[in-house]
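Work Package 3 committed the consortium to producing structural models of liganded targets before the mid-term review. Because experimental data for this complex are still outstanding, the team generated a predictive model from sequence and the ligand definition alone, so that downstream docking and mutagenesis planning could proceed in parallel. The input record is reproduced below exactly as it was submitted to the modelling pipeline, together with the SMILES string for flavin mononucleotide.
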Amino acid sequence: MSNPAIVGFSGNITRPSKTRAFVDLIVQDVANRHGLSSRTYDIDDVGPSLGAARWARDLDAPAQAILSHVIAADVLVVGSPTYKGSYTGLFKHFFDLIDPAALKGKPVLLTATGGGERHALIVEHQLRPLFGFFEAFALPTAVYATDKDFIEGVLSSEPILKRAAQAVDEAGILVSGRSGVRLAAE
Ligand SMILES: Cc1cc2nc3c(=O)[nH]c(=O)nc-3n(C[C@H](O)[C@H](O)[C@H](O)COP(=O)(O)O)c2cc1C
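The resulting structure, written out as tokens with the ligand in place, is given here.
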């Protein structure tokens, strides 16, 4: 994958997935606006070696390639369905295999989906601290959507799409800033 690159990673463990569709919608939007290469992955893509892995080296080759793409991304979009008030266990386990310093300073756009409004703060109370641990650059606008915001698996709620566009604008500021830094250094 050529750089700069935007990579989506969704914690859904079943398909079809609203979360994956939501993450990919945002990935495509940022990629199209800024000419980035893009990929979106989910737990299904990582495959069965994830559950048994105690260390990144225990992952099979395709799973290690996905881990490497996530680490190498210029911008990350992460999302998870809410399971029992938090991200899915395998979403956390994937990030548990990443070196604590590997995501330092990386722009990360936070998203989540849930069955209802009750757990909307998963993005602030679960996802933001996780990426705070990594000292990643989590964007100020995090986006949560509920099942009723989707029609046939596609995000269709105007207020949520508007909030997602706000997060995409923030990602754009960082993408432009990063290429500006690169140009200045050349
Ligand atoms: C095991 C399980 C636990 C869930 N726990 C919650 C929950 O605590 N809060 C919530 O709002 N939705 C909960 N849900 C609903 C899902 O978060 C919701 O349907 C989500 O949008 C599914 O995303 P997906 O289509 O990407 O799988 C749960 C669903 C499952 C299967």
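Reviewers should note the following from the model. Residues 98 and 130 are 12 Å apart (CA to CA). These observations will guide the Year 2 experiments.
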